[in-house]
Amino acid sequence: MDLRYSDKELTFQEEVRGFLSQNLPGHIADAVRSGGELTKAIMEDWHAILHAQGWLATTWPTEFGGPGWTPVQRHIFEEECCRAYAPRIVPFGLNMLGPVLQTFGSAAQQAHYLPRILDGTDWWCQGYSEPGAGSDLASLKTRAERDGDHWVINGQKTWTTLGQHADWIFCLCRTDPDAKQQAGISFILVDLDTPGIDMRPIRLIEGGHEVNEVFFTDVRVPIENLVGEENKGWTIAKFLLTHERTGIAGVGFSIQALEEVKALARKQRRGGRPLIEDPLFAARIAQVEIDLEAMKITNLRMLFKAQQQGGPGPETSILKIKGTVIHQELKDLARRALGPAAAPFPGHVSDGNLTFGPPDTAQNAARYFNNRKTSIFGGSNEIQRNIVTKTMLEL
Amino acid sequence: MDFNLTEDRQMLSDTLTRFLSAQYPVGHRNQVAYEAPYHDPDLWDQMAELGVLYALVPEAAGGFGGTGFDISVVFEALGRALCPEPVLGAVMAARLLGAAGEDAAPLMIGASKFAVALSELDAPYDFADIATTASAQGAGHGLSGRKSIVYGGQVTDVLLVSAMLNGQVALFEVRAGDASVTGYGMMDGGGAAEVLLDDTPARLLIPDAAEALQDAVNAGIVALCAEAVGAMDVIHAMTVEYLKQRKQFGVPIGKFQVLQHRAVDMLTEIEQARSITIKAAADLGGGDATRFASMAKNMIGRAARLVAEEAIQMHGGIAMTWDYSASHYAKRLVMLDAQLGDTDYHLSRVMAGYVSE
Q1: What pLDDT is recorded for position B60?
Q2: CATH class for domain A102-110+122-233?
Q3: In sequence order, what are the residues at sequence separation of 6 or more whose Cβ sits closer than 8 angstroms to the Cβ of residue B318?
Q4: Rg, Å, chain B Cα set
Q5: Within its chain, how far is the Cα of B277 from the centroid?
Q6: Domain assignments of chain A as residue spans, ordered by start
Q7: CB B276 to CB A2 under 8 A?
Q8: Is the dihedral of CA B47, B89, B223, B205 positive or negative?
Q9: Are B70 and B94 in contact (CB under 8 A)?
Q10: ipTM of the complex
Q11: Does B139 touch chain A (CB under 8 A)?
């Protein structure tokens, strides 16, 4: 038993810190710290900076341009990025489609798409969920019918994150309507410039534009855009869902959020003393800090296991359940610490210079509401409990 | 980073687990746990022969262990077997004897049993807030006061007692035969004692004992947390097994999602509890040991109560019975919260750090 990083890992941590302090532009870190929506330019700039360093595709094997890191190195990198307020890397091309193409794609698909993901030519988004298919993804209805050298796609995808910036979408489509639910699904790549596609914004609870719905009307896609075998898309979907769950505990973000809450509770005053000296508020912080301290170790334990077994196991569901709840609780405390000063709606205060709390807190209520998503997406926490029930409890 | 046990500790864990399952089956356990003197002298000697007590004593004091992970390995095994023997006193006494520069050999070979008497009725957790006093008495000291719920006190040979001396908490050794010791059994099995001191002769071990006592308490907390993790593993496995076997409306009740999700939540809390125990064990003796011990004891208190109550509920009436062993695990899990500081006490300790941070 040894909880410490090895000397090699500590050296790597220093290297990452040095890189971030040299290469993460101040205006980008400021934008992340403010908690508002990031512009496309900021996300692309950060993508390019990491690409230039060779630290972009952290989950890719070296033969495809990955840095060849161990799970622990990836964890250190993510934690340091959080600490430095670097933007979260947009995962759809890099962490989702990339591994899919590397595992299931043809040589031609790998040669064409992977370099374009790395250099930022193609921004990908995900066409999974539908109005009637969320955590029960296998009930999806979007239809792809063969017509000569093309697939003809009709249907609707939804919750398409950052689709407004995307050039391409990877879709799960039903290619055999007569087969059993999971059996008739295929994984197809679609250029969003193809005629018949209509991407519409969905305004979220806090007012932001983060997700979209995508309508497909007789969209013609070349047959070579099928990944893997026809009607075998469910295998890919399952593969991808485990990838989506790794790192989903968001420990780095929670560490950062805890520090912010403590700093805020020191500045805010109630009854003539700092809020952090109010025993009820301090107890709320202490409770979640203890949970987070345990979560850090749980996360390392699962990393260690993944490193030994060569991949994440069903325990990642436990990380997701607990990690999201901890993060949501911290976002609640950040909102609560401001009291009524959390209520003014950013963008709806006529004097832009007017402030209600310390710097970088104007979005605290918005972030609280926005982060309710984390226990829903990536397989809701209830679905994660179903997974643990089957795989670990064997009930 | 390595979350595997070392070979030595794995062997200790396996040996002790095998010994306890062979020699301390549940029937015998319940007999020992609930009948005076709440202790099995033969098995205690055999455990000592296995080297279990040596493993609890730091190398500096002549043992071959004493780190947080040595303690946690032993207590996880004790927790799985729900062993009521007074091993906690040995863990804490080993630290205190080490701090005092005393010989730990009688403890390690199992010749003398030690109990650590810190708690008082009006000061169950804060060892600095005590009413027992010491006064000079010839070459030694005399202690006066009442020490309460002294775990293992019913069979102890030696008491390590805290008392106020010149405005400081000091640590004394009292021979059990010199004090008025009244033993009794506990709700969750095992025994304790009230220790009445009335100018009772005592030998001063540490004049300013705050630091040593805190270290002993931290070690005791690691032990209790690991014991809870072991017991939680067992009761959770029993619960999952029961969900598979018990049928209602023609199907195993484990097919009901409302129970499945609750069983998963139990598992999640157990894994979190295991993690924080590892953290407290790793930091024992270090600069942040007290903070992480408090975090661990708080989380264990919450998790253990949840797991105990959920296990009873999901078993239905059966876990309400004396004859089904889950009931005894549940009692231990709930009651150990009241040893060495409960959930609320340790939460307030963590909070207290915020003002000075």
Answers
A1: 80
A2: mainly beta
A3: B242, B324, B326
A4: 20
A5: 13
A6: 7-89, 102-110+122-233, 250-392
A7: no
A8: negative
A9: no
A10: 0.96
A11: no
Q: SS3 breakdown of chain B: % helix, strand, coil, rounded to 5? A: 60, 20, 25
Segments of chain B with pLDDT less than 50: none
Beta carbon pairs, A and B, within 8 Å = 127
Which of B18, B37, B157 lies closest to B81, judged by CA?
B18
Instruction: Please give the angle made by the CA atoms of B224, B126 and A271, to the nearest 5 degrees.
Output: 115
With a cut of 90, say whether residue A309 has pLDDT above it. Answer: no
β-partners of residue A126 are A170
Paired tokens of B234: 């067992």
Q: Give the domain B115-208 fold.
A: Butyryl-CoA Dehydrogenase, subunit A; domain 2 (2.40.110)
The segment(s) of chain B belonging to CATH 1.10.540.10 are 7-88
Q: Which regions of chain B carry the CATH code 1.20.140.10? A: 212-356
Q: Cβ atoms within 10 A of the Cβ of A49, count?
A: 17
Angle at A253 between CA A247 and CA A258, to 5 degrees: 140
The mean predicted confidence, pLDDT, of chain B is 96
In this complex, do B295 and A290 lie within 8 Å of one another by their Cβ atoms?
A: yes
User: Would residue A293 show up in a list of annotated catalytic residues for this protein?
Assistant: no
pLDDT of A101 reads 97
Selecting among A78, A79, A130, A244, the annotated active-site residue is: A244
Number of helices (H), then strands (E), belonging to chain B: the values are 12, 9
- Span A222-236, mean pLDDT? 96
Q: Which run of H or of E encompasses A335? A: helix A316-338
Rounded mean pLDDT, A366-394: 93
Quote the CA–CA distance of A110 and A94 in Å, as a whole number. 13
Calculate the alpha carbon distances from A19 to A81, A88, A140 in Å: 10, 16, 44
Cβ atoms of A200 and A224 closer than 8 Å: no
Mean pLDDT of chain A: 94
Whether B281 and chain A come into contact, CB under 8 Å, resolves to yes
What are B130's two structure tokens? 């005590």
Give the CA angle between residues A381, A387, A390 to the nearest 5°: 145
Angle at CA A306, nearest 5°, toward A305 and A309? 85
| Residues facing B160 on adjacent strands | B116, B173
* Residue in B1, B276, B354 closest to A6 by CB: B1
Half-sphere exposure of B73 (CA within 13 A, CB side): 26
CATH of domain A250-392: 1.20.140.10
Record: contact B1-A2, CB cut-off 8 A:
yes
According to CATH, the superfamily of the domain at B212-356 is Butyryl-CoA Dehydrogenase, subunit A, domain 3 (1.20.140.10)
Class (C level, CATH) for B7-88:
mainly alpha
Whether residue A318 lies within 8 A of chain B, CB to CB, comes out as yes
Give the DSSP per-residue string, A219-288. EEEEGGGEESSTTBHHHHHHHHHHHHHTTTT-HHHHHHHHHHHHHHHHHSEETTEEGGGSHHHHHHHHHH
Instruction: Count CA within 13 A, CB hemisphere, residue B231.
Output: 35
Residue for token digits 């805890």?
A: A258
